Fold this protein.
Amino acid sequence: MSDVVVITGASGGIGAACARLLGSRAYQLALGARREKELREVAAAAAPDALAVVADVTRRADVERLRDEALRAFGRVDVWINNAGRGINRAVMDLTDEDLDEMIAVNVKAALYGMQAVIPHFRERGTGHVINISSFLGRVPFVPARSAYNAAKAALNMLTANLRMDLRAAYPGIRISLVMPGVVQTAFAANARGATAAGTAAHGGAPGQTAEEVAAVIADLIAHPVPEVYTNPASRDVAVRYYQDVAAFEENAALR
């Protein structure tokens, strides 16, 4: 019996790539996103029985409905991927309350709702896997203009780690993983809050990885769970150097 995987933010980018790859490997899929047309196209391309649930994951009730519809369709959930997210192009001193509120809502609260929705089901079964899609920028401040996005992903990193620690003694069969992509070739930069053509070129113009390459890392993580993974192996080395000497790293980065 193939695993049932729920993916949020599945109408494009990494979420859609994950749906297509996992569907090709006979996983059963429940896909959630706000954009109905795009979501249904992804579902149809991913698998004949893929479930498409139009949902705004910044609303707790929508996330719970996604869970309920997945359970109704497939009887269980094995893997829940909190993938929905949005970036920003705004320096710290230019941030508004609305900027920060949206970054927290989309990048932190939506994932929290997902975790709180599915973990009781996992506790009942004694098994399950939550995968939270974060960012390398939640560890290393390479792009200061991402400011509130970076801060939100740093918060997600710690929520993920603390949930893992909360569960590990009593529920060793429940896995909690963090995925940290770097630059990915998607429309993410163009769709960032406050995005401009210049900002997109500056922050999203590096070649980076394809969404399909990131999806392959996530698929491997499902098969072989670990606490966290950088989708680009070089990112881990950069993060290690950053925390070894923050002052030196930031000085060198500022001179580039």
